[in-house]
Amino acid sequence: MDLNTLWFILICVLFIGYFFLEGFDYGVGILLPFIGKTDIERRAVIQTIGPVWDANEVWLLTAGGAIFAAFPQWYATMFSGFYLALFLMLVGLIARGVAFEFRSKDERNGWRSLFDWLIFAGSLIPALLWGVAIANIVEGVPIDAHMNYVGGFFNLLNPYALVGGLATLLVFTLHGAVYLTMKSEDEIRARARRAAYKVGWAAAGMAILFVAFSALRTDMFDKPGVGMLPGIVAILAGLSLVATRLFLDRRREGWSFISTGVAILLVVASVFLTLFPRVMVSSLNPKWDLTVYNASSNPYSLHVMTIVAFTALPIVLAYLAWTYWVFRKRTSIKQVMHY
Amino acid sequence: MDALALARLQFAVTTIYHFLFVPLTIGLALTVAIMETIYVRTKNPAFKKMAQYWGRLFLINFAVGVVTGIIQEFQFGMNWSSYSRFVGDVFGAPLAIEALLAFFLESTFIGVWIFGWDRLRPAAHALAMWLVAFGTSVSAFWILTANSFMQEPTGYTIVHGRAEMTSFGALIGNPQLWVEFPHVLLAAFTTAAFFVAGISAYFLLRRQHVEMFRSSMKIALTIGAITSILIALNGDAQAKHVVQAQPMKMAAAEAVWNTQSGAAPWTLIAGIDQAAGKNTFAIQIPGVLGFLSGTNHFQGINQLQAQDVQKYGPGNYVPPVAVTFWSFRIMVLAGGLMILLAWYGIYLLARRRALEGRTRYLKLMLPALALPYIANTFGWIMTEIGRQPWVVYGLQKTLQGVSNTVSTGEVATTLIGFTVIFGLIAVAEVYLMVRYAKAGPEIHEPSPEQPLETAAVL
Question: Which of B44, B85, B101, B328 has the least C-beta neighbours within 10 A?
């Protein structure tokens, strides 16, 4: 395997980490105003992701940095092309990051409810936009011979992309509901469980619609070289969502969380399988696709980055795992609140 | 304004704003780590209270630094995609490494620190803050590696019109990095020192919590006295280096229009007429620039411009001289005042004077809180404006780096959007900072024994 392919896989892994981890804290943020009925309940809800959400977001920053370092042309085309969409995402991420830290620092109801809604909106916007982005990336966007995106903002908002957006939004919400079921107690846990049931149907339905749409709009099911493989992986993701419900029925909360997580993992894997070796598909001319070869850094850069990544990642993963171990207990409204 | 001007303005707004929070994050993480370590060593609960008090202020500041930092990583691709294509091969690596080595460390252990008071042993808890402090400094190192490449490209070759990395060693061995990194790090420690000293002065003047703020002040003045003097020494080394590596920047910073042989005079202030290529008036001190710059041949802007035209072709290679000149002076003046204030404080401590009795000094330390912010901001303005018209010195001009597919309207939208959001965040941030600073160390920390109603307050 060449380094270009290795970095493609590494970036896929970083996105899996980002969607798996930040996926549930987006979900918790979206559910916050509905599951937390009183202030202390809302604090307990935020507490479930309090120690980890910041590090979860770093997966996105690392994925962005890795794209910049390994595939600068991809970084340049995507970030300048999806300009206003990224701006909206940044606004969302800024709002929720500040809101987590600021919301409980003033006791007035208006202040707290303002920041609760900012957490809600700041979690909802990226959860929605990622599906929009994924659909556009796999279907292809107008990219010219000079690797420049020549469409506009509204190009990105086609029906397929909206289905993608709703799919990620609902799947992350479900992931968050299941996480909350696993990490909370009493009333909050019961409400999160009910939310998981409600959202579960919608999430599974939208995910199936997205896969069906993808079969029509992309080469997910007839990819040269790998054939139906990306499509099959996507269908497995759908089955994993069904398993979530079965585990919930049996009150196996940990397993149902793992199955929403596996669904997310498989969707990302399917998207990257569909893309490879392309990183951005040109809807104008296949020759203008950005690939892991024409968009990459030189071999020396990739070599250096490979050494750094394989030295640092095991250490990072070790202390991340340790943190989740330290904060493994369920949160309760009876405990000390730090947020 | 066109897209280029707006993109530049946006970079200025987002970066200057971001850097209002970063130095305090770096410096205060270290300060809180030191305080908590004293607590662990002495088991004196006063130091725990101290670490928690400054820790609360640290967190309010940290949050804004983090979220404004996300923009930094995205905006190179959004507004400067041609730049990103040109240097991504070299420039992307330090950004990715920064995320991997620093961001994970900071964000993980700040979570551990906030939520871990009752789950970790005291030493392990203090270690979490040391890891945050280490992470913030590692972050500074890698982002400045990237910035140093823009100031003084090293370890690359140009292939098919793109810069490609040829030596990672040369990238991190960049001499510019090794003057710039200590400068920024020391500036961050000084920022925290004056932040802690300023707020401590407020309480000492009011004679509230005198014990705690007297020792906070001692810690701050000790850090500040050391770092403010080191930064001046380092700044001198940096200036001597920049005279050689980016002569045009230093010529503009000193408003030297024509090459000076022998021991050049140093210009204290001057009226700058960039169009005419001269100063309308100047107050000068003989010989000092020759001494400061370490050269007997200080090249002038006009001669450098002629050389650059020969080297790079026709064009204007002179940065905005007045901005560079005055930014430099404002930074140095603020730095000088900080040295005086910190050392005067040390003098008072050495004479065993009770600080809380020195009201005039304490009253000075309140507005002095602004000094590090002024120095930090104008230092960066000088560095970045003084490099113009280049985005990567000698390799790519700023106007060549801008995204060519992003419209003026789009840049204007994001510029206005970010500016409004920054304004709102600033209001909330200052409100909370003042509130929590004034609340002092004795706020009702929520604890399991307290009934929920009171625990929910603050």
Answer: B44
pLDDT of residue B83 exceeding 80: yes
Cβ pair A91:B417 closer than 8 A: yes
List all residues of chain A from 277 to 306 with a beta carbon under 8 Å from chain B.
Answer: 297-298, 300-301, 304-305
Contact B100 A313 (CB under 8 A): yes
Residue A239 burial class via C-beta count within 10 angstroms: exposed 0-12, middle 13-18, buried 19 and up: middle
Count of pairs with CB atoms under 8 A, one residue in A, one in B: 240
What DSSP designation does A144 have?
-
The residue ranges of every structural domain in chain A are 3-326
Task: State pTM to two decimals.
Answer: 0.94
Q: Mark yes or no for CB contact B165/A297 under 8 Å.
A: yes
Q: Given an 8 Å threshold on Cβ–Cβ distance, is B88 in contact with A69? A: yes
- From chain B residues 51-90, the ones with a CB under 8 A of any chain A CB are 59-60, 62-64, 66-68, 70-71, 73-74, 76-79, 81-82, 84-85, 87-90
CA distance A289 to A164: 22
Which chain B residues are Cβ-neighbours of A79 within 8 angstroms? 74, 76-78, 81, 84
Residue B181 has pLDDT above 80, yes or no: yes
Q: Which residue of B has its CA nearest to A43?
A: B456
The answer to whether residue A39 neighbours chain B at the CB level (below 8 Å) is yes
Select the residue from B84, B118, B435 to test the A interface by mutation, using most A Cβ atoms within 10 A: B84
Average pLDDT value for residue range A61-76: 96
Closest alpha carbon to B184 in B2, B51, B383: B383
Domain positions in chain B are: 3-246+319-455, 247-318
Q: Is the predicted pLDDT of residue B454 greater than 60, yes or no?
A: no
User: What is the structure's pLDDT at A152?
Assistant: 83
- CB-CB under 8 Å, A337 with B164: no
Instruction: Please give the ipTM for the structure prediction.
Output: 0.94
* pLDDT number for residue B200: 96
Q: Which residues contact A35 (CB under 8 A, 6 or more apart)?
A: A41, A45, A180, A188, A191, A192, A195
Which of the listed CATH numbers 1.10.10.60, 1.20.1630.10, 3.40.1400.10, 3.50.50.60 matches domain A3-326? 1.20.1630.10
